[in-house]
Amino acid sequence: MSLSLSIFVVDPEVTRAVVGSRDVRVRRAIGGRFKQEMAQDDDYFASEIEAGAPTRYEALTAVVDGGPFNETHTFQYGYAYRMICAFHGRRQWGNSYSPFRFAWLGHVDEALRSLGITAVQVSEFGYGLPAPLPRTDLPGHGVWSPADCVTALTQFEAVTEAQLAALDDDVREAVEECAGWLRAARASEGRGVVGFMS
After folding, report:
1. Three-state SS across the chain?
2. Closest CA to 173 of 104, 123, 119, 120
3. Residue 31 above 90 pLDDT?
4. pLDDT of residue 91 exceeding 90
5. According to the model, what pLDDT value does residue 1 have?
6. Helix 103-114 vs helix 169-186: crossing angle, to nearest 10
7. Which one, of 59, 2, 1, 16, lies nearest residue 194 by Cα?
8. Residue 196's pLDDT is what?
9. Beta bridge partners of 194
10. Torsion sign over Cα 108, 13, 182, 1
11. pLDDT band at 112, cuts 50/70/90?
């Protein structure tokens, strides 16, 4: 099974605050901005919606309202939360992370550790959603806090060219893409990195 990461530089406190806020203006603004994308997603998940899954906008409404959640079709709430992060953040690109097999994240984490970069792990993007959102396998979700990003970037900046050159080309590219996300987070005070695996 092929996976991909969606990465956003965003203040994770801001996005978590939307969950359960009941902020109608934010919900409408997000719905308006992603109207076309939501329609495409509803077409893609038409069979699940016919089986009782909420539409993407219904899922967004439930996330903003803090529930109720359909425990049978929890994936839609993860994708709705990803829209909230996209709305409040800046999308980052990573060619090394689309598509990939799950074991790839472990290889990148191993390379990061070998370079002395221990403050972050890409495998963190494969876990659950923030409370009170229900558990779902996909999309996975994880957060590198602003403080962790600063620490990890300091660790990366201590890495030598010789250390990077010793990595396989694909792994080196993946590590350097992580460094790009960290630099983007540092350039925006209070922002971290939020990732979604799907």
Report:
1. CCECEEEEEECHHHHHHHCCCCCHHHHHHHHHHCHHHHHHHHHHCHHHHHCCCCCHHHHHHHHHHCCCCCCCCCHHHHHHHHHHHHHHCEEECCHHHCCECCHHHHHHHHHHHHCCCCCCCHHHHHECCCCCCCCCCCCEEEEECHHHHHHHHHHHHCCCHHHHHCCCHHHHHHHHHHHHHHHHHHCCCCCEEEEEEC
2. 104
3. yes
4. yes
5. 66
6. 80
7. 16
8. 97
9. 8, 143
10. positive
11. very high
The tokens describing 53, both together, are 């899954």
- Structure tokens of 108? 């990148």
**Encoded amino acid at 118, one letter:** T
Amino acid at 142: G
> Is pLDDT of 190 > 90?
yes
**Would you state the structure tokens that stand for residue 137, as one six-digit string?**
């396998």
